[in-house]
């Protein structure tokens, strides 16, 4: 016994030594001189100090939803930042519009953002369906309802999904940034030497160079008709500048995956008449329209306001975006009205075309997310480009920002090592790769509908390749276009009602195949519960129990698109499961709240969840002690069974003395519901440590640890990137 005790003492002393050395290295390398104010005379890179160069801890390039949300999260965590945006105005194009469960959970902590979205979005009955038809007023092939009863009962999440256009979301984000002290500035409006909390419009990033203090970022902007340049210094540069990211190109990071899956023209238009018709006769979110004259997908962003986006496929170079150009406004209106007429089924007299954008569908992920010694980081579309099928693009990007924000804050404050930034890539890149594959599968499922109707997209692509071949390329462009559109016109003739009816054997067979696709859920899907709430990180800022792996190797699913339900899980890497709880020792009238609300959105704080048993209280005391050594804020939550009284919970104060940062809660469960520990598939002897981003970092049996302090120092060292810990 003496030798065992001596060994544990020696291990603990060695652990203390290695931890102290690690902390000194981190704080020495990333001290306030590195991340605070930089002497502009030393950092302007010109050796003379002739111009003051602003310095920021974090500079974000790209003021889309991901960049703005990251700036909100960082500011709430006390990190100074500003945003550069190439455009001089914010886009009014609706773009993304589906906000999934996990993103809405994050929005709950952004000053009531989720609740405001719910109050402004259209009623769910107006957008829960995808409708497949010959025209908006013609026969319907079928419709798919993408909402289920469990989507509204708040069993697996405290909030539901939403349908809300991107530009409207941007407006709400800008309002929150204004309340945080941000201002939107054009180049001519920038004055003074205070550069943090600015959204600098019209500034394009043109160069990135490392310096002793961090990075020197060159920008260009138009002022009074002349191009001028301005330099910034920052400790961290975040590229959130979209699919054609300049930041990604400047640091030579390549994208890998499938390119040019489809080319489309996006037509943003208003029609109150069309909106009111669909609202009363045929409400839905997406309308897939197939007829002999035209094919397109109509996205109903707001039926009440009559706001739509029409997606039309086109084949380059025979069909050119110039056909939809604003160079000839009269021709533009005529072209769009003709297309809309063919797809709607009658002439709308109040069509107002607002914008036209060409875009190309890709399925790619950046080879790496982090560059330049952990100082250049990619997020959102700059790091991954998905087909829009399933709405993963914006949602994945926002969740990138949520994963990254607490890590940047922890590093800049000296809590974590710079290596914690690498865990952002380790955790988020595999999620993007999986979501890319899932989006492609969902896109191909969408293509099964026209294929069942006799319009196989693979054949259309083959025809296009033949016309682009060396033999046909010698033909004049006008003749190539005539041939392509002629062949496509012949193909669309199969959509004639003379063919597609129950009395025609071929048409009956095709309609039967189509019905089977809808009935078996093999068309385009909107929701993926298992991937939305159940995505898990396999490695990163996570800690396994001694001698164990976090996740055993699993064979990848061949049928990724199978609509699996979300099953709560409390393994390291998973999102903390949701359960309604009540705070004890407080007014009984207080409403129940979610376990997700135990984690603050306004500060860095870890959470240890335990049951009210001796071994777990002991481990909680040790956790508080070690967290204090690491300068890491930690709160303990004791979850009691349903029906526990205040008298029963007085023991927590005694058991955790002298530590005060704890909360006693009880399960607010229905009689037939599982307990918290059953929901998490755990025993009540286990404890879980939760990170500031609501993902579980570590889990263990409280009675299985030989030395609490030694084990907890190992856990915090590994989680915060302080080097390998001596075992």
**Helix coverage percent of residues?**
25-40%
Shape: globular
Q: Tally of extended strands? A: 26
Q: Segments where pLDDT lies below 50 for 5+ residues?
A: 1-6, 24-50, 325-329, 553-559
Helix count, DSSP H or I runs of 4 or more residues: 20
Radius of gyration: 28 Å
Strand content: 15-25%
Q: In terms of structural class, how would the helical and strand content be classed?
A: alpha/beta
Largest sheet: 9 strands, mixed
How would you explain this protein's 3D organization?
- 34% of the residues lie in helices and 22% in strands.
- With 727 residues, it is an alpha/beta fold.
- The strands form four sheets. Strands 1, 2, 7, 8, 9, 10, 11, 17 and 18 form a nine-stranded mixed β-sheet that branches. The protein has an eight-stranded mixed β-sheet with strand order 5-4-13-14-15-12-16-19.
- Strand 4 (129-133) and strand 5 (140-145) form a beta hairpin.
Name a few traits of the molecule.
727 residues; alpha/beta; 9-stranded mixed beta sheet; 8-stranded mixed beta sheet; 20 helices; globular; disordered N terminus
Mind sketching the topology for me?
Elements: H1 2-29, H2 32-35, H3 40-43, E1 55-61, H4 65-76, E2 81-85, E3 98-99, H5 101-107, H6 113-120, E4 129-133, E5 140-145, E6 162-163, H7 166-179, E7 183-185, E8 198-201, E9 204-210, E10 215-223, E11 226-239, H8 246-250, E12 255-270, H9 272-281, E13 286-290, E14 295-302, E15 307-313, H10 329-344, E16 352-366, E17 370-371, E18 376-378, E19 384-385, H11 392-412, H12 420-452, H13 457-468, H14 477-492, H15 505-519, H16 529-532, E20 580-583, E21 593-594, E22 606-610, H17 614-629, E23 634-640, H18 650-656, E24 662-667, H19 676-679, E25 686-690, E26 696-701, H20 708-719
Parallel strand pairs: 1-2, 1-11, 2-8, 4-13, 7-8, 11-18, 22-23, 23-24
Antiparallel strand pairs: 3-6, 4-5, 9-10, 10-11, 12-15, 12-16, 13-14, 14-15, 16-19, 17-18, 20-21, 20-24, 22-25, 25-26
